[in-house]
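About this split. The held-out portion is used to measure sequence recovery: a designer receives only the structure tokens and must propose an amino acid at every position. Recovery is the fraction of positions where the proposal matches the reference. Here is one held-out target exactly as it appears in the evaluation file.
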């Protein structure tokens, strides 16, 4: 890929990322951001995802997030989490980010993917998004059978402290099926 094409691709990924934030209004934490973009990216594969502590994770998205904050396109509101010694970085577009997007539209196909992802995840909390994305990733990328017991066992071994129950995995599989994602 030439340098010019690489820059155009990065700009396109940045637009997808920022338009997604705009659609959701506020995204409650970086974990939710990764899961939202994971589902938005299923058809286009613009971002590279790998398994990390909380399921599918993209380093490209991590860097786009950091750049957007540094460039003043995103505002973040750090919220200390009461159950852990951690901070959730809630994010939304800054005025500069809104102005940037007003000047930079997306193609209808990308806009449609963002709308579909929004419809699927708008009522999910970050933990539910984590489970949905984890189950989907295991089925899609590890040729794991669509079997709640097997997937639950894999999740328990990969994420022993997550506390996901078999019934939650079964519900996640049902939700993914209902939305034609598996």
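Reference sequence for scoring:
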């Amino acid at each position: 890929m030439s340098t010019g094409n690489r820059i155009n691709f990065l700009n396109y990924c940045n637009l997808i990322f920022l338009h997604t934030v705009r659609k959701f209004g506020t995204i409650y934490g970086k974990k939710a951001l990764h899961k939202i973009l994971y589902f938005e990216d299923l058809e286009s594969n613009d971002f590279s995802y790998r398994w990390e502590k909380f399921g599918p994770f993209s380093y490209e998205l991590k860097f786009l997030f950091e750049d957007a904050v540094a460039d003043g396109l995103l505002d973040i509101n750090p919220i200390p989490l009461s159950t852990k010694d951690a901070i959730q970085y809630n994010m939304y577009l800054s005025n500069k980010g809104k102005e940037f997007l007003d000047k930079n539209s997306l193609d209808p196909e990308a806009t449609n993917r963002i709308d579909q992802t929004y419809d699927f995840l708008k009522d999910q909390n970050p933990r539910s998004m984590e489970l949905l994305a984890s189950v989907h990733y295991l089925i899609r990328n590890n040729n794991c059978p669509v079997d709640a017991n097997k997937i639950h066992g894999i999740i328990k071994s990969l994420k022993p402290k997550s506390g996901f129950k078999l019934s939650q995995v079964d519900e996640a599989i049902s939700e993914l099926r209902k939305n034609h994602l598996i």
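Annotator remark: The first strand starts at residue 27 and ends at 28.
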